[in-house]
């Protein structure tokens, strides 16, 4: 909080927790606090999801792939979406003015008037769409990892075939079944020596 030290805020929070019921609209105030806390936790979840996506790539600014599914959209291209996610990762979720400025200053979008003319609300909406796609992809990736670990854990060593199978273990096969030494099938003609 601006103008207050951390100790002052901490003392106020302690007194507030003890005496908030003395306030007239304490129900409304508590709901606003809970709403604010849920927004903060959601923002943290979003930043963790984006960071998890970025960690899968050596250079996400160039290599990042987004699994659009069926809702790719026609207005934004993959390069724009990649830049948007990387900048949100760098600037933080909710810094829409800085994001808009980054698009305008980037040489990648020097002649892309569509992107440069987007409002902060439009960029925020596109970012929310991309975040939902990233969260879905992260969830699918986690599920695949869990399944792979489960399969690896349940995998038992394979047994060698038993010697009761005569076709597999018989070293003496007839020449017609064995074929030639070079691996080609017999032609039926005898070779001359």
Task: Compute the number of helices.
Answer: 9
- CATH homologous superfamily heading of the domain at 43-153: Homeodomain-like
Class of secondary structure makeup: mainly alpha
Q: What's the rounded overall pLDDT mean? A: 83
Task: Report on the biggest sheet.
Answer: none
Query: Helix amount, in percent?
Result: 55-70%
Q: What is the alpha-carbon Rg in Å?
A: 32 Å
CATH architecture of the domain at 43-153: Orthogonal Bundle
Task: Please tally the β strands and state the result.
Answer: 0
* Quaternary organisation of the protein chains: single chain
Order of helices and strands: HHHHHHHHH
Give the N-to-C terminal Cα separation.
Answer: 99 Å
Biased composition (Basic and acidic residues): 139-148
GO molecular function: ATP hydrolysis activity; ATP-dependent chromatin remodeler activity; chromatin binding; DNA binding; histone binding
Biased composition (Low complexity): 161-172
Protein name: SLIDE domain-containing protein
């Amino acid at each position: 909080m601006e103008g207050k030290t951390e100790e002052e805020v901490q003392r106020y929070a302690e007194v507030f927790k003890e005496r908030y019921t003395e306030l007239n609209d304490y129900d409304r105030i508590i709901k606003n606090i809970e709403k604010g806390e849920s927004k903060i936790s959601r923002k943290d979840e979003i930043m963790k999801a984006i960071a998890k996506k970025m960690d899968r790539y050596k250079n996400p600014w160039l290599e990042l792939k987004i699994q659009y599914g069926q809702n790719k959209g026609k207005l934004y291209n993959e390069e724009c979406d990649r830049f948007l996610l990387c900048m949100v990762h760098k600037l933080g979720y909710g810094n829409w003015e800085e994001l808009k400025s980054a698009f305008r200053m980037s040489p990648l979008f020097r002649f892309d008037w569509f992107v440069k003319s987007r409002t902060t609300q439009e960029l925020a909406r596109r970012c929310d769409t991309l975040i939902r796609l990233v969260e879905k992809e992260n969830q699918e990736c986690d599920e695949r990892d869990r399944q792979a670990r489960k399969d690896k854990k349940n995998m038992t060593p394979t047994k060698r075939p038993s010697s009761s199978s005569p076709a597999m273990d018989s070293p003496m096969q007839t020449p017609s079944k064995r074929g030639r030494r070079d691996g080609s099938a017999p032609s039926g003609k005898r070779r001359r020596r």
